[in-house]
Write a structure and sequence with these properties.
With about 130 residues, this protein is of the alpha+beta class. Helices cover about 50% and strands about 25% of the residues. The longest helix is centred in the middle third of the chain and has 29 residues, at about 60-90.
Amino acid sequence: MTEKGKIREIKGNIVIVIPEMGAICFGCMNQECKAEGGYIAAENPKALPLMQGQTVEVRAPGVSVLGQGLAALLPPVIGFLVSFFLARQLFPNARDGVYGGIGIIFLFITAFLVYKFRKKYPPGKAYTVTRIIA
C-alpha cells in the first residue's frame, strides 16, 4: 500500500506524515486516520534528507498488507466450514438449508470476533518513506 502526504514533524528516524485524501482514504472512509489522529508514522530507513512540509511517498510492505487481509478473511471462512460440517455430524437428518444456515451464522459470529479482536489489538503497520516527491 502506497500513500502520499506532507511531513508534519520529524522525530529522529520516525516521520509523521499527514496523508493526502485519495482512493485509499476513501476505501476506509477515513476511519483509520481518525483513529490514529489523522497521521501516519513512518520510518526513514534510507536516511533521506527530509524536511517539514515536504511531500513524500510512504509504503507499507505487501507482505504486511497480505497478512492483514488473510487474518481478516480466513477465520470467517474457516468458521463457516467447520460449523457446516460439524452440523452435518450433529444433525444428520436435517436438510442442507439448516447446515448452510448454521454455517452462515458462525461465519458472522467469527467475523464479529475478528473485528473485536482487531479493534482491541490493531495490527502494526510498518510504513517506510520511499521517496521525496516535492
